[in-house]
Input
Amino acid sequence: MVKALVLDDEAIIAADIAHQLNARAGWQARAVTSVDEARTHLCDDDYDVLFLDIEMPGCDGMTFAAEIKQAHPDLYIIFSTAYPQHAAKAFRLSAVDYIVKPLSRSVLADACGRIEEKCTKPANAIESPRFVIKSFGKTDIVNMDDVIVGKAERNYVALICRDREYLHRATISEIEQDLVPLGYLRCHRSYIIKKNQVKTLVRKNGVLSQLRLDGGHDVPVGANYRATVQASLLQASLL
Output
């Protein structure tokens, strides 16, 4: 059973979220409309997750989240707010998700799925670091380990995953710093790839010119990166 507490100063919204959660198999939810109520319930009972609004009269949800995580470090927090601009700060507080109101059923279901996965994961499991990608009034959370190819696109980087592609506002060099420690390799001034996804090395006139990755992705190898790529893949027993 996943026990959830929903804090939103608008009683109708809090009740609606709690109602949707209670309708989901294996969930039990309670709605409250003030920080004092939430604090009391969290002290009196064991909750798995707190759905938390950010901007409430007389209360900053971010401040409350930091406070409550000190007292309940195992509590998962999902921010539900009408303000997408706080996402980066939310994830610095180790939020599981950041969903923008009005909540659709599918978005809430996805958030619930992430909580269920965490509640069944072994306590010593290591979570993958994540990219927080904001676009068109929504925020996507992408595990860095899910990225197969990163491709520079002007002021953005296209993060190509197995199921879809995300456009992240960053430079390829910034992405490189995040991904290289996780087993990724810069192979071109515009590309970074996941090394264990490389299936075929393509040579032209005896020179390494392209990498073919699992899923059919073909990525060029730049002349300035060729020696590093060959040495790295040789070390990984790919040559």
Observations:
- The mean pLDDT is 86.
